[in-house]
Design goal:
Blueprint: E1 15-23, H1 27-40, H2 47-65, E2 69-77, E3 80-86, H3 111-119, E4 122-127, E5 137-144
Antiparallel strand pairs: 1-2, 2-3, 3-5, 4-5
């Protein structure tokens, strides 16, 4: 079962559409929920599929590289869908994301992050979950509703 977290007013403005903690076992359900929310908010194909894939890649990275779990918050802010994924892993910076398609530049990994940055209209990486002072990362990606 996926549990919703209590509301966190410190996360800023916008209308919260989805908030979940997740593990590897919950990733398929999370993808479905993100797709349903994106469709309900009017994000059309092929952008919706690209957005869901990008969210899935970042969530999968949290599971694989950051202790097996993470937290997702999906909001509508104006004409954008914004997804924030945070974890308590070792953290990283945007500098680790290859400029070229991984494999072409010799990097063996990084395709998910590269893809997410490519797909997003807005993309950022913050070291440590917002406001906690703890290790980890928070990746924010947003797409405009067209």
């Amino acid at each position: 079962m996926v549990n919703a977290d209590p509301a966190d007013p410190a996360e800023g403005s916008g209308r919260r559409l989805l908030q979940r903690r997740f593990t590897a076992r919950l990733l398929p359900q999370l993808r479905l929920l993100v797709e349903e929310c994106a469709a309900r908010e009017g994000l059309c194909e092929p952008r919706r599929g690209e957005f869901v894939l990008a969210v899935d890649e970042i969530a999968g990275n949290a599971v694989e590289h950051a202790g097996g779990s993470g937290r997702l918050v999906l909001r509508r802010i104006g004409d954008e869908l914004e997804c924030r994924i945070s974890d308590t892993g070792p953290g990283f910076s945007e500098a680790v994301i290859p400029e070229l398609l991984p494999g072409l530049d010799g990097a063996p990994k990084g395709r998910g992050l590269w893809l997410a940055r490519l797909v997003a209209d807005r993309f950022s990486v913050a070291s440590g979950p917002a406001g906690t002072g703890l290790p980890g990362a928070e990746v924010t990606l947003a797409v405009r509703l067209r």
